[in-house]
TrEMBL record:
Record keywords: Transferase
GO molecular function, one term: CoA-transferase activity
Record-given protein name: 3-oxoacid CoA-transferase B subunit
Pfam family, one: CoA_trans
Organism lineage string: Bacteria, Bacillati, Bacillota, Bacilli, Bacillales
Provenance organism: Sporosarcina limicola
Length: 215
């Protein structure tokens, strides 16, 4: 499931983009891009991240989630302050982030669950405000089966910024005309399955509507 989502997200990346990958599913996108066409950025201070060679791991070369990464040809290092200056200055073309919830207004919650300890906000707030395009990659539901794409976030939101694209193992949603539009079904998913696992308000692309199908 995670690989399916990551592979689909990679198809959204234009050549020569500078891309920041969040923790979790987003990190897998590195396996589906061409290092000659895409440049990966990490907020702890590296430009030119690539997939790690398991036989030659350098414990000092890590991403923002402290996971080992590889160095692409011509990779560069700099301070975390410079890295965040790149983000805040609008120099990141795409940020691919995970999410706990996404709501009908396009807001995401991905840094806190009240009463539970999780990794924290990291650079998500800065990326949501500074990146030119936001892609959310996430499972369609939580471990308990509750929807992640909801009418209104119940967890603390990360930013007022709208996420342009949501990719799950069931569907792809694009933000159009002030709401999300279901534009693609993933794998063997059906419109009815997506509807049953989504409480957010969304429209459906006409190309997905089959004659006589109830949605």
């Amino acid at each position: 499931m995670r690989e399916l989502i990551a592979e689909r997200a990679a198809k959204e990346l234009a050549p020569y983009s500078i891309i920041n990958l969040g923790i979790g599913i987003p990190t897998l996108v590195a396996d589906y891009i061409d290092d000659d066409l895409h440049i990966l950025h990490t907020e702890n201070g590296m430009l030119g991240v690539t997939s790690v060679d398991e036989e030659h791991i350098d414990p000092l070369v890590v991403n923002a989630g402290k996971l080992p990464v590889g160095e692409a040809i011509a990779a560069s290092y700099f301070s975390s302050a410079d890295s965040f200056a790149m983000i805040r200055g609008g120099h990141i073309d795409v940020a691919i982030l995970g999410a706990l919830q996404i709501d009908s207004s396009g807001k995401i919650a991905n840094w806190a669950i009240p009463g539970r300890d999780i990794i924290g906000v990291g650079g998500a707030m800065d990326l949501l405000e500074g990146a030119k395009k936001i892609i959310i990659t996430t499972s369609h539901t939580s471990n308990d089966g509750s929807p992640k794409i909801v009418d209104k976030c119940t967890f603390p939101i990360t930013s007022q910024r709208v996420a342009e694209i949501i990719i799950t193992e069931l569907a792809v949603f694009n933000w159009k005309g002030g709401r999300y539009e279901l534009t693609e079904l993933m794998g063997d998913a059906t419109l009815e399955e997506v509807k049953s696992k989504t409480t957010a308000n969304y429209s459906i692309n006409e190309g997905l509507l089959l004659e006589g199908e109830k949605v």
